[in-house]
Amino acid sequence: VEKNEIEIKANELLKKSIIEKQKLGRSTTSVLWFENKTIVEAASTLANDEVLQLNSLDFLTAMEAEGAVVLSYFLVSSNRKTLDLVLRTSISQKKHESKKVQMPSVTSVWPEARIFEKELSEVFGIEFVGGRGLS
Amino acid sequence: MERLVTEHSRLELGIYHRFLPGPFQLQLDMDGEMIVAGTAKTGFTHRGLEKAITTQKWAASLLYADRLDPESAIFGEYVVCLAVEEIAGIAVPPRARSIRIVLSELARISAHLMYFVRLAKACSAENLMHYALRDREKLLDLFELITGSRFSHNYFRFGGVREDITDGFIERVLDVCSVIEFRLNEYSKIFFNNSIFLKRSVGVGTISRELALGVGLTGPNARASGVFQDLRKDQPYGGYESVTFQIPGGTGCVNGRLNVRVLEILESIKILRQVVEHVPAGEYSAIKSRDAIKVPRGEAYARIESVRGVLGCYVVSSGGDKPERVQFRSPTSVQLGLLSDLLVGMRLEDLPVVLASLDLSLSEADR
C-alpha cells in the first residue's frame, strides 16, 4: 500500500476527518484530524480494515496549543511494520477547573495504549474513560 | 481430603532491593510462594527530563538526551538528532552516518554485555559477571578514545558528529569484535550451557507472542517471543539500509531472551565489520558551528532501534531557539506495562531471574 493510498483510504473510512496539509516533519507520514468523541470508532475502523490493517499504536503524545490539548496517535501496521498514519484530535482544557477533561480510551482496540494514556493522564490531567487503563 | 484455605499475603519489594533493576516498587499478592497478582510502581527517578530540554537551547538538548539511559546514552542522542534533522531538513554526510552506526552497534554490544552481568548476578554466577564486566571495559575504552568519555558521550551533533574518528580507531574496533566473538564461546561454556542455569531459565518467565503484541513490546524481548520486528530492517534509518544482518528469534522464556542477545551481539559484529572497513571519506558534520543550528517551525517523530527496543522522540519546534515540546517513547515504559500479566502464576524464587532477563532501564522509563 502506498503512503498516499493510506491517506485517501483512511479519509474515506473516517467520515468527517480532515487531512492536515502539512505532513509530519519532512517525511511522507499523513496526519488526519477527527472529532475526539469518535476516537474508539475510528481506531476500530482503521485496525480492522483489511487493506490498512493499522492494528498497532506505536505512540500517543499530547501538547498544549491555544487553550486545548492536541493528542496525536502514531499508527503502525504490524504487517508493513512502518509508521503509516497519525490521527490527531483536540480537547479543550479550561484553566482553574477542578474537573478533569475526559477522553475515550482506545485500549479496547490498541491495548498497548495503556501505558501512554497513563503518562498523559499524569502530565495533562486527562481522564481516559471506558478502557482497561493502568492504575 | 480437607484443603487448607488461607488469605493471600502482600509482599512489597523495593523501592531499593538487590534484585530490582532500579528504584521501583513491586507490590505482590502471594499465595504461599506463588504470585497471584502484581503491580509495579514507578516514578522514583523522575527528573523532568522532557520539560528540562524545553528550557534549554537546541544544542543543549543532546546533553539531556544523553541522560535518558546512561547505559546506552548514544541512542538518546541519536533519536533526538534524527527528529531535529527531519524538522530542519539537514542532510547528514555519509561519513557521519557510518560513524553513528559504528557507535550505535558498539553501544548495543556494551549494553548486552551488561545484560549478561545482571542475569549472572541474579543467578549468583559471579564468574560470568566478572568476565562480562572485564570485556565491556574494552568497549568503554573505544568510547573514551572516540568521544572522550566512557559514559554520557555527548558526541552526536545535529548534522553529524562532534569529532572525526582518530587514526587506529577502525583497527581497534575490529580487534574488539574478534575478542568479543571469542569470549562469547567462553561464556557459552561456563554459563549459557550450564545445567543449573538452564534449569533456572528454560521455560521460566515466558512471554507469549500474543502478550508481546498485546502490550506493544519491541526489541530483543519481543523478538525472543517471535515478534520479528527490527526498525533497522523494517524502516531503515541513518544508513542501515545498506548493511546485511539477520533478526534472531527465541523461545520467549528467560533462556530465549538471553540467546537472542547473544545472537544480536554476533549480528552487531557483522554490521561493524561491514561498516568500519568502508567508512566513506568526507565531512563528519554538515554543520560546523554549534550555535549555527536554526530549527524552523515544525514537528517530527523519529524512531530508532535502541538496545531495548523502539525508542521514539517527538519534537515540536515553534521556530525559536528552544524546543517547544519533546517527548520520548521509551521501550522500558512499555515493558513495565507487561509486568502485571507476566508475574501472575510465577514463583517468587524465579522473580530475580525474570526481572533481570527483561532488561529494564528505570532511568529511561521515569525520565
Descriptive report:
The complex is a heterodimer of chains A (135) and B (367). Chain A has 135 residues and is an alpha/beta fold. Chain A has a 5-stranded mixed sheet with strand order 1-2-5-4-3, covered by helices on one side. In chain A, strands 6-7 form a two-stranded parallel sheet. In chain A, β3 and β4 form a beta hairpin. Chain A is globular, with a radius of gyration of 14 Å. The termini of chain A are far apart. The mean pLDDT of chain A is 78. Chain B is α+β, with helices and mostly antiparallel strands and 367 residues long. In chain B, the strands form 3 sheets. In chain B, strands 1-2-3 form a 3-stranded antiparallel sheet. A 3-stranded antiparallel sheet of chain B has the order 6-7-8. Chain B has a two-stranded antiparallel ribbon with strand order 4-5. The radius of gyration of chain B is 21 Å and the shape is globular.
Keywords:
heterodimer, A: 135 residues, alpha/beta, 5-stranded mixed beta sheet, 3 helices, globular, B: 367 residues, 3-stranded antiparallel beta sheet
